[in-house]
Amino acid sequence: YNGTPVDPVSVLDGIRAKLGGDAEVRYAQGSPHHSGLPYLSAVPPEVLYTTEAMEENGLRAAFYPNLKGEGAPLFQRTDSLVDFYWWDGEPPVEGLSDDNYSAEWSGYLVPRRNGTHALGVNGKYFQFIFEGDTLIRNHNIHHSNKIYRNVDLIAGKAYKIKVLMQDYHSDANCTLHWQEPGLPLAWDAIQAARWADHVVLVMGLTARLEGEEMRGLELDGFNAGDRTSLDLPAIQRSLIRQIAATGKPVTLVLMTGSAVSISREHASVPAVLQAWYGGEAAGEAVADVLFGDYNPAGRLPVTFYGSVNDLPAFENYDMAGRTYRYFDGEVLYPFGYGLSYTTFSYDNLILEKDEMASDESITVSVDISNSGGWDGEEVVQLYIRDLESEEVRPLKDLRGFERVSVKAGQTIVVSMTLGPDELAYYNTAAGSYKVEPGLYEIMVGPSSVSENLLKTELLVR
Questions:
Q1: Disulfide engineering: 89 pairs with which of 124, 170, 272, 316, CB 3.0-4.6 Å?
Q2: pTM
């Protein structure tokens, strides 16, 4: 699940705001998210008209104080385009309540190109009428849906359209969106890359591809919201290869809601920033990191595998061979991994004592040195492994972490508590948490990779 920003700052806007007039920034879309998923944007005013005579751009809007659009409208106007979000109880027009109202937009669409257009609406409870027939009907009062149909259109011809929207609650949105045919996306991006001194390539997924119970979505790599491949969609991988082939330095920014396998991309681009799905100020945050105004210290909450073939089939919820806790193969980016503009080293792992009773707590300490040239933050991670358990226990288990600030050239001591809460596991036979006596391996480091962890042993009596 992910939130939907109302007015987000894009990475492009963040970069332009950061650089101001100090550099020229060119943009090219490059590719859609998926070859089977159109890149939908609001239908622009220049192709919308209030009448068939095409004398005024836009669509005629009417707002009704009821859900059925009955009676005389409370308010009418011409909207240049249909792309609205009304949140937090904000009514769309003065005098209208913030729920239980309806709106309609009507007029004509005059396309600029011949060919198949993706045409539809993003909203909750709406009906889209095209040339007198209902093209799309959506009844979902809980969350918005982006729905489209492929329609063959003739350039210059006026098509009669109407969008009907109902708002049952105090938040609503409605966007008339499309994708025109024949856009040379990859070509424009390659030309821009050849011109540039540096390329910021923003790739990733979308909530239109990954989610829960997305019935009807069947595309290469995706099935009803589930992933059948961990790779980026093929059209994105192709664009990355072509951009990398220009020889220009590339920073790949990934905006996804889950892990992706980017083994080939990892080998062909010098830098990758995992930005996830962004919030309102995502573009500003990404720009701060890209241009060194913020030294990142993010850590991966999931494992990035080299390939879906590294994992067993997901036929049940048995975690054998999955996650950092039970997977013993090589991975692309491990759980807990993250880079910084500085470097850190670990030394002198010390347990307060190497034997303890099961109801005791001890202090685990380690020296952290900032060996680079920047002040920065490090996330120190504490893992344990039960070496003598009679039950199946994880290869390692994160039981504590501390995010600490360390100045360049400084060494600090980081301490964490290890006690019953950290050592206990849920015993299904007993139906309760339990601390097993025996020998434990205690590991501290910057990620879950065993080679990067300092290790010692603790005996629990």
A1: 170
A2: 0.78
